[in-house]
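Checklist before submission:
- one chain only
- standard amino acids only
- sequence pasted in full

Submission:
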Amino acid sequence: MRALAREFDLGGITVFGRLGNIESPEQVAGLSHDVRNLGMELPAWMGIDQEGGRVARLRSPFTEWPPMAVLGRSNDVRLAGKFAAAMAAEMAAVGISLDYAPVLDIHTNPKNPVIGDRALGDTPEVVSQLGRVIIDELQRAGIAACGKHFPGHGDTAADSHHELPIIEHTPDRLRAIEFAPFKAAIDARVAFVMTAHVLVVSIDDEHPATLSPKIVQRILREEMGFDGVIVSDDLEMKAIADKYSPGEAAVLAVSAGCDALLMCGAGGTGKTVNIELQATALEALIHAVEQDRLPLKRVEAALERNRLAKERFLRDWRPPTPAQLRSVIGSDEHRAISEQMAEFA
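Returned file contents:
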């Protein structure tokens, strides 16, 4: 990873327990310090999927949180704020600077195999209200929040880790339901929005949303007015990787309007990461610019949005002492909030 950063520079990394990145609070804090120094021009992001429930990379001795569906059933804005502030405090203590949360998908399909209890609710009102509270608290703690998965992954019957889900709703239905939580997040100045690897046939019947200028640029950027960082979901997920090579996917995603790309190893499920695939994607972007297949202005705009986000959130940070970590990680106060949430299970 250091060699890759030296050759190309990197925007950041994402840590996973499955890759052995997460062993203890002290180890994560030390890794965070090292990661910030990976970026040559700007500090690198220390990113993580910390939603709560089954998608939570920080486990005991960190506080373990119930699924977000439980929080949604409470429909309690104050409880959502306490939860998000507590989770943010533990992440901030170990140097996490970017959390790929909250999930803003609306759980309208009970047979959805990938979202399920990760969603805050089954109505746009609940997801919008609680999602905005979570964004506010994460970002108040200095952690960039990321609303996902645009344009909505809640009403799908397939898992994009394994195949390309198809959405057949009309644009009017999408604007009224699926887009609503993302509009609330944009109003809350969410730092990042993550795209979904779904095929929305009523808008673009050829390209998955991540690779679709009609969805990323025209709708999210222009129509909805999002001026933050648009990040792809993992380009190694089979919904993309079954049809596109890493280089093709990278070029198409940036061309579509994505400002940052995730490549997390076997679609986020593998035990290793293939650095060669990541190098291939970076080289493909360089060659596409050199060959005028990817406008330099598009790349420069993406870099500028990343720079602005880093200036907003990447403050000076040093690893805390073990005693300081112990006072925050898994504290009695935080565990009490988790137990209060669990009452709605």
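Reviewer check: The chain has one domain: 9-339.
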